[in-house]
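User: Run a structure prediction on this.
Assistant: Running it now.
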Amino acid sequence: MQSDQFRFHITDAAQSLGLKAVCFVLEGVRNQQTNPEFEKLKAHTLAQVTAGLSSEAIQTDSILSGFRALHDAIGRSNRKNVASPESLLKLVLQTGGLPQVNLLVDIYNLVSVKTRLSLGAHDLSAINGNVQLRLTDGSETFWPMGSDKPKVVSPGEYAYIDDGHNVLCRLEVRQCEKTKISLDTTDGFFIVQGNARTEEAYLHEVTNELLALIKRFCGGQARMLSE
């Protein structure tokens, strides 16, 4: 599918849970392993994040609590299913840093720990058709990133699912192997997700911050995906 034909939709059932997302396509990005200027920015930002970070701060944060409330609403364990921004913040608290994957991934991970929102990206060339954020019915296919085999998809969860019934991201917990961002990625589908405790204005503010950083270090032309 050509990127100008790609569409994204949030179903009413997903919206009723309080799910909110701003998504965009970015074409012509130049990914790389790392960038010295970005590493300086990353170190500075992480120093600011860790200055006020504690286990208590993570537990009481309003946005992170909103993700836990989402999991409660669909009957999923928060012990087994930790939202990606919370997982990253716990890692920062333990180690003082974030893993280095590649520049595009490192950029959205950094923005995620700074803002507490769930950010993700997928290689557009590996997506089958369009994408919906909807509730699962159990017929979907999910191959988690880093796993050696597919996992069973339980009905009643929310996920980003393409027209081929492939789960790109389960909850805001785990992305899939097939569409992960690599050094060869040139066109990407990007997600900035919040919850019922996230203001729409904040979602757009974070989206603009993410876009600015990607364009600064990786270039590309963006197209916002409207509902």
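The mean pLDDT is 96.
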